[in-house]
Structure prediction request, 175 residues.
Amino acid sequence: MRKPAAGRPSAAFVYDDNKEASGLNSPTIETQEKAAPPAFTQLHFKTYILIGIMVVTGPVGNLLLAKSTKHVGEIKVWPLTDLFGAFFRIFSSSTIWAGIACLLAFLVAYMLALSMADYSFVQPAAALGYGVVAVLGVFFLGEKVTPLHWAGIAVICLGVSFVRNTHPRTTENPD
Prediction:
């Protein structure tokens, strides 16, 4: 007997071998109802929330690191006393610690998203962060973003729109 597709009722032909003397082995139709897997919409929702956290916390964390290290100025690696002084100035900044906290939140959200969805879904969807990086760079660091750069970011975001229409998990859930 054929197996029905998940979540859909199916009709399967079953041949009855117990027919009497007529010798006819006519098919009878069996209908099977299978419940749809309950986690599809919940999985999408959780995955999108985690990707949203990644898209925000990754770029914000990097922005805070960039802002903090720009205040320190150029870091000289020689003599070593200059390097140790710069290290102390960087890590005594509350901005650097806020950036590290954001990047840790990004890492946790990334690991959780990968536990629920395929890498081939999570990584492209997280690429929306490139747009956030450019916007943060313009508004908070005074960077100039060229039209060609914006066009590249738009192409990336367009590609992400294709990924969002796919199912987050194409592999079996390992138990």
Notes: The longest helix spans residues 39-72.
